[in-house]
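Here is one chain, start to finish.
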Amino acid sequence: MTLIELSHPVIEGMTTYPGIPGPVLGVHLSREASRDLYAEGTEFFIGTITMAANTGTYLDSPNHRFPDGADLSGLPLEKLANLDGVVVDGTDLPDDLDVAGKAVLFHTGWDTHWGTEAYFTGHPSITGETAAALVARGAVLVGIDSLNIDATPPKGDRPAHTTLLAAGIPIVEHLTNLGALPPAGFRFHAAPPLVVGMGTFPVRAYAVL
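Its structure:
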């Protein structure tokens, strides 16, 4: 068994998407302060983090787009973990690719720009027609190693988000290292915590070969 990391690390101050603030790390209980609370030689650290839900590699639930859609707590594990996975090179879905019941991951190579200004403009995305084909052919999760699964012009209508999330299909954006995966024959995992009322959240996405 081989585990393949598919997530970007979350680093204080990082920019995931222009205009979204970076995470801020803090301290709730320092090791020094904890020494007064425990027996001699015993100490603990409890940190804090303040961040937007769209930080790092994250998952979109239907609630991200639709107020009555399932939030993070409403997504069953069957849509998030131990999914049969396939990789699509580029953003065009092959007509003969079986995606029924699968996590479909679009490998564009855009993650090579992560951490640079180039990552934020001209990024690859899928079309509304491709999203509709994924729904019709039974995909259960869709991911991409790019800034956004949709093109991001000002005031854009985001057809891929709309189509996929309306069908209850979670989306994972800002994946990385998809080039380390085979075209098929792996299991994909990207489960967020069960946060009630939240539509998006970072995930530790990974594959099992």
